[in-house]
Amino acid sequence: MKFGKVDHPELIDFTMPNNTKATIDLLSKNKISDSPNVYVGCAKWNKADLKGFYPKGTKDELGYYSKQFNSIELNATFYRQFSGEQFTKWKDKTPSNFKFFPKLTQEISHWKRLEGVQEVVNYYIDNALRLEEKLGTVFLQMHSNFGSKNFSKIENFVKSWPNEIPLAVEVRHPDWYTDKSIFEEYTQLLEENNVANVLVDTAGRRDMLHMRLTNNEAFIRYVGANHISDYSRLDDWVVRLKEWTDLGLKNIHFFIHQNLEVESPLLASYFIKKLNKELSINLKIPNEDTNQQMSLL
Questions:
Q1: Superfamily designation of domain 9-295
Q2: Measured between alpha carbons, how far is 256 from 73 in angstroms, rounded to an integer?
Q3: Of 64, 97, 90, 63, which Cα lies nearest the Cα of 76?
Q4: Boundaries of every domain in the chain
Q5: Residues paired with residue 182 on neighbouring β-strands, in sequence order
Q6: How far apart are CA 266 and CA 269, in angstroms?
Q7: Is 213 buried (19+), middle (13-18) or exposed (0-12) by CB count in 10 A?
Q8: Distance from the first to the final alpha carbon of the chain
């Protein structure tokens, strides 16, 4: 993932922003005592990107990946529409506790920019629903040149989205974040429609680490910089997620990217191990024996 990449990550202030009052209030009024639902995964499962992750001779990449992780941020669906039959094949290859978090196609977000997309959206949803209980939150990622002047397009899209299918939205243009009144109006829209506000933790866009949840879901896209600071940043996330679960956060969806994706599984294993301990959960640590050997090299 190249978005937010910087040449010198050692110069970036990676201090995690404070909690927002709106997030604290939101979680506190819906406090749930049960253990949180936690899904951690990568963005891709192909060998070309995740070199060294698969044992030699692995042919069924998704089958193996889904036995190591409990979820995938399904970026493949951004680049083209897939048939219902393909979604069914993906579902059938994975364990019962596995979930897919598919990105809406670029035809919807980037080409048509949310205008005249109802037919395309319906086709996408009809096919994605073939995942059945393995369908997680669908997410919409807008182009970085899609500014707040397009607020009405986001509003119409969010309000027309089917209530029964969880949705998360990521906006990238800086003016969504720099103007406090716009950000408040935008986040209020998401909160009123039970839509998750995606948090992006990447070196070059610290404004997108806004800490404003809009429902009981933390949908986090973490982008490492292939730098030693990647690990301390994950440590900070473990602390923050513990704070949020203590306040009442129920759903954690955390996806790990890297500028060079080969290191994503190793980072994810580190994060899962820390999160298991802090939240008293028991997610599988991917390739635990292999990762221990790699960390000693």
A1: Protein of unknown function UPF0759 (3.20.20.410)
A2: 9
A3: 90
A4: 9-295
A5: none
A6: 5
A7: buried
A8: 25
| b/e burial code for range 239-266 (CB count within 10 A of at least 16 → b) | ebbeebbebbbbbbbbbbbbbebebbbb
Kindly give the confidence (pLDDT) of every residue in the chain, 297 residues in length, as a single tens digit, with 9 standing for 90 and above.
677 677 888 888 889 999 999 999 999 987 766 789 999 999 989 888 887 899 999 999 999 999 999 999 999 999 999 999 999 999 999 999 999 999 999 999 999 999 999 999 999 999 999 999 999 999 999 999 999 999 999 999 999 999 999 999 999 999 999 999 999 999 999 999 999 999 999 999 999 999 999 999 999 999 998 889 999 999 999 999 999 999 999 999 999 988 777 788 999 999 999 999 999 999 999 987 654 434 433
Distance CA 100, CA 88 (A): 12
Helix, strand, coil: what percent of the chain each, to 5?
45, 15, 40
Alpha carbon of residue 203 to chain centroid: 16
Q: Which two tokens stand for residue 113?
A: 């920019």
Distance CA(71)–CA(84), nearest Å, equals 19
